[in-house]
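Morning run. Coffee first, then this:
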Amino acid sequence: MAGRRAALKAVDWAAFAERVPPNQRAMFNALKTRNDALTTRLAALPEKPPAIDWAFYKANVAKAGMVDEFQKKFSALKVPEPVDTQTAKIDAQEKEAAKSTAEYIQASKARIAHYEQQLQKLKTMIPFEQMTFEDLSEAFPETKVDKEKYPYWPHKPIADL
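And here it is:
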């Protein structure tokens, strides 16, 4: 048991608690309580199961050969440990998540640089109170009125309104 206990990964509950949203705090506390209870039960178990006293049973069981048969079957019994098939998948998902996170961070940095340029442009332009229509059209080309193409007010296609 100690070998298996050492192989278990320890959970950093403090770091885990920081990432739990307030609306899921009750579920987190229930999970931690259940984990603590199971960990306590596991720690209470002996490292090796107690040995069976076969001589005692041979002396006290009336049917001859029954204890020998049980002893033979018991010593032949091998409980297979489950094969870990999920760790590789989880590691692959973690690598994919790290890759997509890095891509998102790069895209976010590019957006931040673009927004900082726009902010700098807005900070350096003429205040709206002092702008003329020509200044507005120059600062924001999408607001430019095209009187040649659309001579009647609102100087835009009706579908764009």
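The two ends are 73 Å apart (CA to CA). Good start to the day.
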